[in-house]
Amino acid sequence: xxxxxxxxMEGVLTPEIWIAFSEATGIPELRRTTRDxxxxxxxxxxxxxxxxxxGLGLADIQRVIGQxxxxxGAKQFLDQLRADQQVIILxxxxxxxxxxxxRQLGQPTLFCNELVxxxxxxxxxxRLRVRDGKRRAxxxxxxxxxxxxxxxxxxxxxxMLREADRGVxxxxxxxxxxxxxxxxxxxxxxxxxxxxxEPQ
Length: 200
Known about the structure:
alpha/beta
């Protein structure tokens, strides 16, 4: 059976964009991510509110993203993985954020979401590609006859990992690994590659 690897982006291949933006702006609320908050809509509503409160827009976030680089070793890991495997990045980030980082990663296929931008470049809403998109992408790939291997680091990855034929956690918070002990936890790209690709 052909197989395909599905990876989360932030926390697995790149730093967390909202944490980088929090550090650049000095706004501590924006450090909160899906590693801390399982309810994605609640998290995004908070972020949009904080941006409005501080008068910040898409261009401000994109300036920070423009200075970001993939995690050390991520490009090499992805290159080695793609030499033998088909890979899709399944992320809850946004197309307006991802381009500078995916270019540095060699333009892997990316499924993610879209921000709704209002007047003066303000972030006014967000639009999911589909609800629970990571899990549904894995299910669709399995329906197409693929064996699916998946890796992520956050609460929002766990439904994807549960549906995959093999699910692996990478550098996840202790709270996530305690709540989901069925998924092997890895800390290095060598461990992740081995955990994903080891024989059944």
